[in-house]
Amino acid sequence: MTDQYPIGQAGKPWQAAEKQQWFATQTKKRDYFEDIEPLINALKADLRVEQYGVLNYDTQYPLYALKSANWHADLPVVLVTGGVHGYETSGVLGALAFAKQHAQTFEGQFNLLILPCISPWGYETINRWNPEAVDPNRSFYANSPAQESQLAMDYVNQYQASIALHIDLHETTDTDNSEFRPALAARDGKVNHNWNIPDGFYLVGHTQKPQAAFQKAIIHAVQQVTHIAQADEHNALIGVPVEQFGVINYDATHLGLCMGMTNAPYVTTTEVYPDSPNTTPQNCIDGQVAAIEGAIAYLAAQK
């Protein structure tokens, strides 16, 4: 448990005034148009770049998808999403690094569909929520309250029947305990209970389609690049019982998580720990890329 968050009153959910007060404290810390958009545009030689929407906030943010240059309608689709939580940097950069390194690797096997930065405002302000104090990664359902989630779903839905694999790239950071969980508890008028931050990489599978062998294959691939988080004294990660080494499960559909937005039989969410003394920013990016590679290798082996 932590001290009361500085916005709102204990036990009382935020109303519009508190949300506005929270929004007024947010500041721009980095630039989507300088950091991310050029990396996306640089991939136009190897991938098709499509703008699938615009986020309408004080700043208008164009949203981009990357597609295999030679799209084959009869091939299964591999969906990669990053930056649903914009502050989780290696999710964004990992998606882009994978696109740069492997744009043509799977030509003729799979169609690649990559949404590298679903929440640009969150990227710029290093935030989990959007400007309306809504978490996009709890908002992937019909009539979503988050523009970020609704626009992504509207775009991805046209490929729904062909998506075989969806991997959503995330991080678990120290700020989960220092800022984001206390803010969440305050917003919802609840008591905050922090979790143990796992030191290392782990996966969150979907309880409705856990695919244990698939998750295990990804963990094995990532182990070649970076360390896997050990369970805590309760045999749990972030308060959830471990299903197998490095893997926990959430009901993604019930919770409105990004990995629950498709009918893909193989889905997972990655989590790296960038604050670990045993890793580096590049190592975190490499871990994300290895996770995608491991997931696709497993899918290819099922053919």
From TrEMBL:
The active site is at E271 (proton donor/acceptor). Its cofactor is Zn(2+). Residues 28-303 form the Peptidase M14 domain. Keywords: Hydrolase, Metal-binding, Zinc. The keyword Cytoplasm does not apply. GO terms for biological process: proteolysis. SUPFAM superfamilies: Zn-dependent exopeptidases. GO terms for molecular function: hydrolase activity, acting on ester bonds; metallocarboxypeptidase activity; zinc ion binding. This is Peptidase. It comes from Pseudoalteromonas rubra. The lineage of its organism: Bacteria, Pseudomonadati, Pseudomonadota, Gammaproteobacteria, Alteromonadales.
